[in-house]
Amino acid sequence: MASPPGVLENAKTGWDKLDINQKMIILMTVILFVVALGSLFFWVTRPSYSVLFSNLSSEDAGAIVAKLQEKKVPYRLNGSSIIEVPSNQVHEARIQLAGEGLPEGGTVGFEIFDQTNFGLSEFAQKLNYRRALEGELGRTISQINEIQGARVHIVMPEPSLYKDKENPATASVVIKPRAGARLADNKVQGIVNLVSKSIEGLKTENITVVDTAGNILNDATGDSSFASGGNYTKTQLGAKEAYEGTLEKSIESMLGKVLGSENNAVVRVSADLDFTQKSTASKIVKQEETPVVVSEEVDKEKYEGKGAAPGGIPGVTSQVPSPNTTEQQASATYPSSGQGDGESNYSRQKKTTNYGFTEISEEEVKPPGELKKLSVAVVVNNDGSKPILDETIEQLVAAACGIDKGRGDVLTVSSVPFDTEWMKKEEKAIADAQQREMYTEYGKYALVAIVFIVGMFALLKVISSLRPARRPELLIPRSVSAAGAASLDLGDISISNITPEKKREMQIEQRKSQLTKEEIQNLAKERPGDVAQLLRIWLNT
Predict the structure, then answer these.
(1) d(CA 159, CA 142)
(2) Hey, is 348 helix, strand or coil?
């Protein structure tokens, strides 16, 4: 095996034997191969980019680009509001930029006070405080998943010496929802409460929330506006939907464990709720088995002397006792004689006893939201893989949601085969996409290997085709010698640069070999390229 210096020497010798055209062909082939291989390698190893931030303001985009350049993180701009970085650096870049307070959302927050300016007037300081408060509230509201961006505008009137002449604070919130997102009413109310509690003296009725389309999201009249198509206010409808949704999720979760998947059951719940608030007061008077004496009064009257005995005044009042009173009256004693001047005795005793009674006062307050009727419909996927008993499903659902037949509740359970063709198509499409992605990834490296092998084979083929011809002794048959060929007339080919000594040697060899002219002509016809190469070598010798 040749040593490296010997290989280099042989390569240099072979290179020197090539003419300029052959050298240019080899150089162009090598350059094209290197460029193709380098381009393919760059395409394979090029990192895939993912979105770092989107919908950025010009200020935030400029600040983020400056930070990425400072940290030497490769980035790519897609328009003026989207910044992309390599996929393996997305999370790290977001964390680093969040530590820098980016993105700011295009607003100014409390960082405006990081640099103290003693030359600011009181008006400028109040204005900066309001700007900072608006910016911080906008950033906080923008953290909600369904919201892409938010702006807050606050009006804070100057305080007045007279309370009745002081204007209330007001605020407006402009929200830009994300594409396809809908902001629920409870989240809108949460935004209203957030703004109200963040600004001193701001009441919820003085806050307006609108979206970028100009729709008012919070209703200033509260529950007085009824949802379209029903007898419920927005708040009541939200409570009704929340109750129904909770029951649906609970039943679907239970059936999912029984049937193997939540996709094998569809549950719909309709609840009739009574939001009327009622208050009932009652008073019950109860007498105990053993009466309790509250008070007792004894009235005694006695008379002794001459004259007629006194008599009571007849009437109803003196004969009927008062409530809660028991009277005991002794009979009067009169003299036996009927004369008015005789001796007479009179005595009377009256006893009044008051008994206590137990009084019970009750007040029953019925809160709104009482369930009047519940209707539940359950559809189970019966694909025939395993038997499904509707009675068992019905019992489970009835126990889970508290079906009361006496209240008029309705429960319906049906088992039918679901149309899952679309799901199978989606699953197949996902699997095909994953398979194509895998093949593409493997194909990149396979293509590099194929291009490398083909390029090397083509390069070796070109080099071998440009290699000098073999020695004349190996090309001419044994019956033909170089001397004999030199002395012959090969048509239009003449050899004039052969020395006389060489000619004599060739003539001697010609005579020895007895080569005929026809044999040389046949050789030229059969192998014209080799003969031409042989003549070229002789001419260059």
Answers:
(1) 31
(2) strand
Whole-number mean pLDDT of the chain?
Answer: 74
Instruction: Give 119's Cβ-side CA count (13 Å radius).
Output: 0
Number of independent structural domains in the chain:
6
User: 85 near 69, Cβ under 8 Å?
Assistant: no
pLDDT tens column, 281-320: 888 877 777 777 778 888 888 777 765 555 555 544 444 4
CATH of the domain at 92: 3.30.70
Mean pLDDT of all residues in 391-403:
88
| pLDDT, position 307 | 58
Range of 389's domain? 242-277+367-418
At a CB cut-off of 8 Å and minimum separation 6, what does 113 contact? Answer: 128, 132
Tell me, yes or no, whether 316 lies in a domain: no
Distances (CA, A) of 153 to 81, 135, 191, 196: 24, 9, 14, 13
Angle at 442 between CA 439 and CA 447, to 5 degrees: 110
Query: What is the secondary structure of 432-455 as a DSSP string?
Result: HHHHHHHHHHHHHHHHHHHHHHHH
Is residue 78 domain-shared with residue 189, that is, in the same domain?
no
Q: Which two tokens stand for residue 186?
A: 């409870």
b/e for 408-424, b at 16 or more Cβ within 10 A?
ebebebebeeeeeeeee
**Are 264 and 286 in a shared domain?**
no
Supply the pLDDT for residue 507: 66
Contact present, 178 and 166 (Cβ < 8 Å): no
Decide if 330 contacts 349 (C-beta within 8 A): yes
Cβ–Cβ under 8 Å, residues 126 and 149: no
Distance of CA 222 to CAs 183, 236, 358, 515, Å? 17, 11, 45, 122
Cα distance between residue 119 and residue 131, in whole Å: 18
Residue entry with tokens 């950025």: 56
Residue 40 lies in a domain: no
> First CA to last CA across the chain, in angstroms?
30
- What's the pLDDT at 281? 84
**Dihedral angle of Cα 520, 523, 527, 532, to the nearest 10 degrees:** 0
- pTM for this model (two decimals): 0.39
Quote the pLDDT of residue 277. Answer: 79
Q: 479 falls in which pLDDT band (50, 70, 90)?
A: very low
| Predicted confidence (pLDDT) per residue in 156-210, tens digit | 888 777 767 778 889 999 998 887 778 888 888 889 999 988 888 888 889 999 9
Contacts of residue 86, defined as CB under 8 A and 6 or more positions apart, other chains included, come to 47, 48, 49, 50, 74
Q: What is the mean pLDDT of residues 254-283?
A: 85
Using CA atoms, how far residue 11 sits from 14, 71, 141, 460, 540, in Å, is 5, 48, 74, 13, 20
3-state helix, strand, coil in the chain (%, to 5): 45, 25, 30
